[in-house]
UniProtKB/TrEMBL annotation:
Function description: Probable zinc metalloprotease whose natural substrate is unknown.
Active site per database record: 126 (proton acceptor)
Cofactor: Zn(2+)
The protein, known as: Archaemetzincin
Protein's organism: Pyrodictium abyssi
Amino acid sequence: MGDEPLAHVAWLADRLAEAYANAVVEVYSSVLSPPRGAYDPARGQYLSEMVLDEAARLRQSTGVDAALVVASIDAYSPGLNFVFGQAMVGGGVAVVYTRRLRPEFYGLGPDLALYRERLLKEALHELGHAFGLGHCANPVCVMRFSNNIVEVDAKSMRYCRKCAARLLEAGIVVARKFLLTD
Ligand SMILES: [Zn+2]
Ligand SMILES: [Zn+2]
């Protein structure tokens, strides 16, 4: 959604296919526009709930088990100044917002590796919700809630054993490389 380069989405899809060992990951390369009426000009942000509804429609029209939308916009949710992403918990629908994942947002120079690491963490996090997981108290589990970009950088791109076990109950096999070992 928006102007997210397709190369990043394709890279992300490859990583997700690695992470979820028994899943088939497909990229739908059609560029979507954020829903009309979701933009709040005073905030300069989109209302995440409306974007998530759009993702839910996409899931329905494609017939996939889970849909992840990568949106190069800034979004908020009532009561929150911004969100890095949002999901319908257990509903197979997730969105990641990439604007605040870019070092440039914080006045720094571009850093592709760092940006992609953040993108992958947030995708694993929101998809975890989409598959039914809540937030995790383990400080380095990817399902740990992140209040800001420092907290995104502090957690790993791996699921703890508890979260991986719950994913398995939902039918998702997490590859070893994406599992916390302790
Ligand atoms: Zn979360
Ligand atoms: Zn966990």
